[in-house]
């Protein structure tokens, strides 16, 4: 398994922390060259150093996923540094505010949809030509169980449902080009985003844990395992799928 992605090149957005960090690390551990994109340059470079210390090859690019030039630069870095692109994990996302809908601001709506959904669309817009230049490849978009059910604030749920729809549409359109497009739909994962929410809601850990069939939250590395599988030839006939990685929460 350590060489399952040997010689492949991947880009990962939101790669400085949480699921993105775990994904970049896992893809590198399985042999891929990884271009990490994130707005947090300091932590992104720390992840690169960790990957290199473990014998992997990684490059950091400062990326705001709502900026077309940044996204284009990330894909071009993969081409120029490693000769092409084989895997893309479009993971960058935010939770936004959780106010009642009548009290939500247009600014919050635009920001959540801009990063969570438009950011994925923009990444795919630039990744697909690069993937099709080679032998095809795999795109894995991070949605959420909120993309499969009403679980969270309205802007967040709408954005994550949109990611699932975008994934399915692209999967059908580009299958003949050798590109598989899937989504992971994590449940509650112990990431900095979730930790912020837990800090603001004392007692929430117990309540969340009680809702989980497995009796705990997921770790980022468990989502990264699903990403690595979807990126690999082990999932060669999996396309257009929104994969819950939720410990049975939606079962």
Automatic annotation (TrEMBL):
A matching Pfam family: adh_short_C2
GO MF annotations, alphabetized: oxidoreductase activity
Keywords of this entry: Oxidoreductase, Plasmid
Class of this enzyme: oxidoreductase
SUPFAM superfamilies, per the entry: NAD(P)-binding Rossmann-fold domains
Keyword Cytoplasm appears in the UniProt entry: no
Enzyme Commission no: 1.1.1.-
UniProt cross-references to InterPro entries, sorted A to Z: NAD(P)-bd_dom_sf, Sc_DH/Rdtase_CS, SDR_fam
Oxidoreductase is among the record's keywords: yes
Superkingdom of this protein's organism: Archaea
Family: Belongs to the short-chain dehydrogenases/reductases (SDR) family.
Listed name of the protein: Oxidoreductase (Short-chain dehydrogenase family)
């Amino acid at each position: 398994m350590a060489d399952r992605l040997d010689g492949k090149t991947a880009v990962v957005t939101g790669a400085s922390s949480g699921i993105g960090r775990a994904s970049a690390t896992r893809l590198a551990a399985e042999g891929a060259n990884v271009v990490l994109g994130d707005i947090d340059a300091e932590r992104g470079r720390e992840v690169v150093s960790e990957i290199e210390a473990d014998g992997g090859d990684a490059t950091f690019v400062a990326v705001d996923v709502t900026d077309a030039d940044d996204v284009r630069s990330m894909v071009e870095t993969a081409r120029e540094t490693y000769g092409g692109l084989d895997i893309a994990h479009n993971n960058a996302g935010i939770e936004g505010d959780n106010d009642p809908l009548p009290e939500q601001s247009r600014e919050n709506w635009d920001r959540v949809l801009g990063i969570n959904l438009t950011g994925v669309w923009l990444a795919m817009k630039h990744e697909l030509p690069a993937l099709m230049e080679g032998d095809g490849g795999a795109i894995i978009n991070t949605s959420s169980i909120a993309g499969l059910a009403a679980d969270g604030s309205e802007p967040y749920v709408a954005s994550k449902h949109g990611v699932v729809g975008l994934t399915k549409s692209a999967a059908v359109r580009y299958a003949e080009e050798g590109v598989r497009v899937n989504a992971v739909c994590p449940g509650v994962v112990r990431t900095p985003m979730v930790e912020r929410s837990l800090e603001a809601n004392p007692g929430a850990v117990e309540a969340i844990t009680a809702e989980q069939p497995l009796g705990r939250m997921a770790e980022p590395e468990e989502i990264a395992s699903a990403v690595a599988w979807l990126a690999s030839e082990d999932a060669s006939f999996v396309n257009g799928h929104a994969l819950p990685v939720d410990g049975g929460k939606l079962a």
